[in-house]
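Deliverable D5.2: sample structural annotation.
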Amino acid sequence: MDTTSLANSIIQPVGFITTHHGWQRIGIGEKMAKIIYLDEFIDSEEINLKLCEPVKEWFHWKFPDFTLPQKMAIPAIMEGEHLLLCSPTGSGKTMTAFLTVIDKLVRASMESKLEKRIYCIYISPIKALANDIQKNLIQPLHEIRTKFMKGKTSEIKVGLRTGDTPQSERQKMLRNPPHILITTPESMAIAISSKKFQPIVENVEYIILDELHSLVPTKRGTHLALTISMLDTLLKRPVQRIGVSATMEPLENVAQYLVASDDRETRGQSLNVCIAKISGSRELDLDIVIPSERDIDGYVKLDAEGKPIPTKFFKLSDKEIFEHEVLEILDLILAHNTTIVFANTRKMTELVVNKLQKELKDLILRNKDLQI
């Protein structure tokens, strides 16, 4: 069977939509999972009650509150449901996926029940994982252990296996498997075909698939589906699947992909997958800015009421208007962390960049204490 046919067999159309106990439920064919759309945001206090004390204290030391995706998705993950999370960039998706895993491992560590095996496999198509994993996994585990866990506890280990991982590190991983394995689809496929590697993943409890939008419609996604299907044949228990991405459509097809090889139905159990979708719409602050009059030092001139005095364009040449516009852009750049300036031609882009560089140098010379 070629990859297109295989992908079509994995991803099939869904059926009708009905409502059940406040959740949207989609009727599927006999061999497909039942899809449940989550539409409730669970109260923070209720989530706190389900977290162990060190994880709860760390989370509220680090963050003011749970984000909307976390309030919707974390309770379902804690209940052992397969879950597909679709929410905007920066909304805490990766932390949402990892928090339940971290909580389970911290509890095991405190109770001296942390086993020498892989509990969770995190698979991402992006090879450069270091920054994201440092922020959402390694740093939290270190902070929880050093600041919030009392007494002697076992260290929760994180291992990285990609095409760049040295052979010595791979051998070390076989002798002392990490509790959380970070890898790519291709590296996972190679590893799981090794008879030496297979025993350390037979008790995996969680699989987290990140950036699903770049996997599902591609040959890499088909290859990954086969890898996970092979992993399912090795497992001693069904593994919980968590899919994460910022942009995915149609969600029902992606959800079916996520649980395609789960064999619960063949053992007489129901197969469900939850979808938590948070809107990506953002509030825009749209404004039309008119350049203001400036004094000899480049500062904006104000009228008697303290308002900027608009530039009188009819008295200026095109070159002078351009210079006023660049100064206004420079003010916006200095007032924000990130600024994107659009120009309609390459020549205009070069003119704006050169003028901004000149004005910025002059500004620094006039204000030596300026921090940029």
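Annotation notes: The radius of gyration is 27 Å. Residues 284-372 form one domain.
The annotation will be released with the project's public dataset once the embargo ends.
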